[in-house]
């Protein structure tokens, strides 16, 4: 079985694939100082609820945009799973051509998303990932990564309003019943929610105009579900984009990774 770990700035996803399908997924808040010992206590307890054991795991693939966390995630795999993990950007290649001026600056999460999207949707693509930041990445017709846009995410925007303006409260993120608010909280919720919808719609339109071509738009990320059904600019909402990309990276790299022990199908429940 494969343990796939995708770590963003805000949340981390742990998922298990049995060789045929994803059988369990869990999310936790990203804490860069969390140790391998703390990870294994948390993970083993959740696995036990699904009648799974750490000994069932035969491979591990990790994508993280938090460099200080990689040491502890690597130790989790080495110390408790007895597996040398595949880490995107270190000993695992995404296998996607990056056509920008500084390829090394592209976060592993954006390449993983690209692979996950290309597995189901033909290019050219715009991938919208709503998390700590909102990214809109452009994938060419031939599957190459061709650049993108990075903007503050909804949670960053809410925190910035609260932190910078003394009289603006901390609010919950939700879709407001109307655009024009009749009190401070409603006005803030409208500005955050509909402001980000407008940002996404506007950037998609500008990208398509600049590229002069029809493009499929795929949205993913923890906040993307809030925008489902409120805009026609997004063609597909796909919450499994990232883990599908991690599975693709594992399959591309596992054959040449001597540390991985055989096909995942050989480990049964």
UniProtKB/TrEMBL annotation:
Q: In which pathway does it act?
A: Cofactor biosynthesis; coenzyme A biosynthesis; CoA from (R)-pantothenate: step 1/5
Pfam families named among the record's database cross-references = Pan_kinase
The cofactors required by this protein are:
NH4(+); K(+)
Question: Under which EC number(s) is this enzyme classified?
Answer: 2.7.1.33
Name of the top EC class for this enzyme: transferase
Instruction: Print the keywords alphabetically.
Output: ATP-binding, Coenzyme A biosynthesis, Cytoplasm, Kinase, Metal-binding, Nucleotide-binding, Potassium, Transferase
Q: What's a Gene Ontology MF term here?
A: kinase activity
Residues that bind ATP, according to the entry?
6-13, 132
Q: Cofactor note, please?
A: A monovalent cation. Ammonium or potassium.
Q: Quick one: which residues bind K(+)?
A: 129
Q: Where does substrate bind?
A: 107-110, 184
What reaction is this protein's catalytic activity? (R)-pantothenate + ATP = (R)-4'-phosphopantothenate + ADP + H(+)
Catalytic residues at 109 (proton acceptor)
Where it sits in the cell: the answer is: Cytoplasm
Q: Which InterPro entries match?
A: ATPase_NBD (IPR043129), Type_III_PanK (IPR004619)
Q: Which domain of life is it from?
A: Bacteria
Identify its protein family: Belongs to the type III pantothenate kinase family.
Function text: Catalyzes the phosphorylation of pantothenate (Pan), the first step in CoA biosynthesis.
- Subunit structure comment from the entry: Homodimer.
Protein name, entry field? Type III pantothenate kinase
Q: Which organism is it from?
A: Bradyrhizobium denitrificans
Question: Lineage in the entry?
Answer: Bacteria, Pseudomonadati, Pseudomonadota, Alphaproteobacteria, Hyphomicrobiales
